[in-house]
Amino acid sequence: MEPSSLFLPEIVLVASIMTIPGLYMLTETKKSFAICSNLTLASILLFLVVSWFNPEALSIDREVSVFLLYGHFKIDAFSQVFKIIFVTVALAVSLISSSYFKEDEPHQAEYYTLLLSSTLGMLIVASANDFLTLFLGIEISAFSSYALVAFRKQDDKSAEAGAKYLLIGAFSSALTLYGISLLYAVTGSLTFDGVHAFIDGLSQGVISGNFNEVIFISSLFMLAGLGFKIAVVPFHAWAPDVYQGAPTPVTTLLAAASKAMGFIAIFRVFSFTLESVSEEWKLVLGIIALASMTLGNLAAISQEDIGRMLAYSSIAQAGYIMIAIPALTEGAMSGAIAHTLIHAFMKGGAFVVVAGLGAVGLGYSLESYKGLAKRSQLLALSMTVCLLSLVGIPPFAGFISKFWLFYNTLQAGLSGETWIIALVIAGVLNSALSLYYYLKIIRFMYLHEPVDDTEVVFPNSIRYISLITVLLLGVIFPIYWESLFEICKEAAAALMG
Description:
Blueprint: H1 8-26, H2 31-53, E1 66-68, E2 73-75, H3 77-100, H4 108-127, H5 131-149, H6 156-187, H7 192-203, H8 212-230, H9 238-245, H10 248-273, H11 280-301, H12 306-322, H13 324-327, H14 330-359, H15 372-375, H16 377-391, H17 397-415, H18 419-447, H19 460-479, H20 481-496
Antiparallel strand pairs: 1-2
Helix pairs in contact: 1-2, 1-4, 2-3, 2-4, 3-4, 3-10, 3-14, 3-19, 3-20, 4-5, 5-6, 5-10, 6-8, 6-9, 7-10, 8-10, 9-10, 9-12, 10-12, 10-14, 11-12, 11-18, 12-14, 12-18, 14-16, 14-17, 14-19, 14-20, 16-18, 16-19, 17-18
């Protein structure tokens, strides 16, 4: 297979994005947009899965990085793993959207076009090999997400969420771009390898000059900009309102895929490119991780709206992942990658259940979950598995990824900066704290009677995705945890170069 064939997912997405407007002009059947989106994402997912698990069939050597488009794109194990996650989440969102939105919902062609455009941006970020490509990928995904959040413009909450997301997103993009410009002014390069080589040469005395302060300031600007994308403290204020106001399928995309995209950018920038910068930024990242874990969990306790509760939970989960970056070891980064991947399934699966309840008109408050086990045992089981995984209760997948993350970060702390050990301890204590509000939801589902006796029939797409979520988090990942770790180790090795 030609190396350019690895760029096939992006090409197929562009073709599909151009096809949907054509379908809009040729047919009045709104289901055609959903079918086109589903088929596109399913075919891309099949290609990515085959290329990973059976590379010989496509003449692919996964151990060799492939550079495309004059080195702007890098196809390696790290990018391929996250592409699989992005497309999987996007496919789930596309499937539940057809059940969530009514038949007469306007602007569905635009909705699915924006969904595919957002996915395209994520794939570009995964393969970006320089700061400019990384920024363009983030913006392609972000601009599509702004419109998706405000898709139901007649809904005041959706319009407000879209406006907030746009303003804060534009501000974060400006910060990121300013940080990149400062870094370019100092290093004269926009490629990750070029910036890394400059900073490494500076630290070894090969390059003379006092540029550390400027590089540190530029990294702070990029951290602030990317911090908004992953919603860590103190850049988190937008998340609860946006998660609550956006259509639930869009919230699923934001919580599961967009957050992972933000972490890709942070991993690329801080775990490799800026690894030889002075220790100050590591301490900053550690403080942000501690604050995100603690404030996210404390704020989630008092929430009555499930969307807001899960939003604060996402802030806490981002804090857990952040503790690995100051450690800067391949093991710690493999743990961070593992928890990022599992988090996409945990949080995505939880929001699928939320979308199911919203689709049948039960609402989004905690009261809506009373007696859910009597209405649908499958959806209640799926939500339970997702919540217990988020806590890190064995034997679910969240325990495996969180253990791997904490263990490897602890090992790095024992052999290096001892203050990292305190971060790991804080992570364990915060995980125990999160059990309180997760168990509250489970108690409502199993120990309370439904608010009314109205018979509810959940859409098939919601039930099927819930079943897959239970199998992945409760059976497949726990059984094949060694294979999962190997995948994450391979991705971390590719990331760290």
